[in-house]
């Protein structure tokens, strides 16, 4: 050990910091693997044929399943999901109850993004009338869904919200419906429907992991250099002492 003398303070710092840096790098790799699995599941289910709500309802894992709907919109109870940004522009997402005639169930259908450049005027949107046949896919939020906030800015309709919980809406309206959001596919009734599936791509997680591992390697390299350098300095110190 005479060839390696890093000192007690650097040793303590490395013992505290190095495990944390390695853990952060491994955690980012794990998150990247989870995102890849999520994207693979999304892609596989989005390529499948749409199913009915009767087939969907008993499924334990309905996320990203495509469904076909036949029914009509409720034009009286629209929700405007605020603070949605696309290409640097502020806007809202339009969510409306949709009655599926074959299953007798309501779904909270997200028709997509609309710009809202002037907050002094309400956003403009149209709702198709009559019987419609639509294709959509199930979105299940990672946190358990959207929550309808109490004390919303407006008690009227359309209602501006920041989060939505479908179950709360059905209880307010006294209806039976699915407890999650359903997102409309591109078509005549949709607006802008290019939702990102994950907020951060697997490649970004890999990039962050590389950064954490690089910091760990730099810390370890500095520790080794300091230990060798101090040992050499100690060997070159005069061996005699002055009286």
TrEMBL record:
PROSITE patterns: SURF1 (PS50895). It holds the Pfam family SURF1. It is found in: Cell membrane; Membrane. The chain crosses the membrane at residues 206-228. It is a multi-pass membrane protein. Keywords: Cell membrane, Membrane, Transmembrane, Transmembrane helix. One of its GO terms (cellular component) is plasma membrane. Belongs to the SURF1 family. This is SURF1-like protein. It comes from Ectopseudomonas toyotomiensis.
